[in-house]
Amino acid sequence: ISSKLLTRFFHLQRPCLAAEKSLLATLRKKTGYTFANCKKALEMHNNDLNKAEEWLKQQAQSLGWAKATKLEGRQTSQGLVAVTVNNKDAALVEVNCETDFVARNKEFHKIVEEAATSCLAYVQKQPEVKEVVTKIYLDAEQLKNLPASDGKSLADHLALMIGTVGENASLKRAFCVKVQNDVHLTGYVHPSGSNSSVLLGKIGGLLALKQLVSKDVDLEKVGKDLCQHVVGMNPKKVGTSLDAPSKDKENEICLIHQEYLLDDNVTVREVLDENQLEIVDFKRFECGEDTNQSVDQPLEFIETCQ
């Protein structure tokens, strides 16, 4: 009799065990955490999947902050630049890490994309501009305090990523821009290859373009080509008619006087004249470059172009 009872007992227990295995597989797939940690989380919360997942996230966040504190100070010279444009608002962001290996990691890509998205959300909340272009610069500390899409700070997301990849990383700088309705914004990164709303590369640029007269021009294509030129040729300023072209064409710093990247038989000025366009402004970030410039202005600092 006892043998039959035991057989029946174990037979009845199998569905429960199967359910636990199913939950374990679901939790592992959803979170990416180890078998042992997922099993522990489910056991601690009576197989409540939601509570187990939340507990795992809290543990990962704590471990991430501990790891981030331990690695703080280690040089971060690699990384990525992100560009995102949404109609009349755009953001250009740099996030750094220690090695190019981590810069190719999907978890690192996620934090770079999150930073760019958060910066775009920030500039979208700013009042409508009276100037042609309004530019906002954010430094590392200001970036850390920005809220991400889930309400947590970017600093929290960064710490979580550091805990995952085991390497130091830093939010370096951001440039946000808002333009008037008659100005076209475009972005470009190199190397290119992403079709998402956030472009990732080693060098990135934003360009604000304006039509001088009504003309049938593909602003998106021309703007992208000109932004590609900015990324590739690294001009220091747009330039005006008062700026004389440099005798040394290779080291020309004025954008309008540079030989056009996509056709060196013409200058950027000639491309603009042909299409009746004006470059209002541009910004270029190169990962790892010296930033002893205006990007460290405080959050309240807003630069405008009349």
From TrEMBL:
GO molecular function term, any single one: translation elongation factor activity
PROSITE patterns: EF_TS_2
Superkingdom of source: Eukaryota
Domain Translation elongation factor EFTs/EF1B dimerisation: from-to ranges: 90-239, 251-289
SUPFAM superfamilies registered for this protein in UniProt: Elongation factor Ts (EF-Ts), dimerisation domain, UBA-like
Keyword Membrane assigned: no
Short name of one Pfam family: EF_TS
A GO-annotated cellular component: mitochondrion
GO biological process, one term: mitochondrial translational elongation
Keywords of the record: Elongation factor, Mitochondrion, Protein biosynthesis, Transit peptide
Family, similarity comment: Belongs to the EF-Ts family.
Function: Associates with the EF-Tu.GDP complex and induces the exchange of GDP to GTP. It remains bound to the aminoacyl-tRNA.EF-Tu.GTP complex up to the GTP hydrolysis stage on the ribosome.
HAMAP family, alphabetized: EF_Ts
Protein name: Elongation factor Ts
Natural source organism: Asbolus verrucosus (Desert ironclad beetle)
Lineage: Eukaryota, Metazoa, Ecdysozoa, Arthropoda, Hexapoda
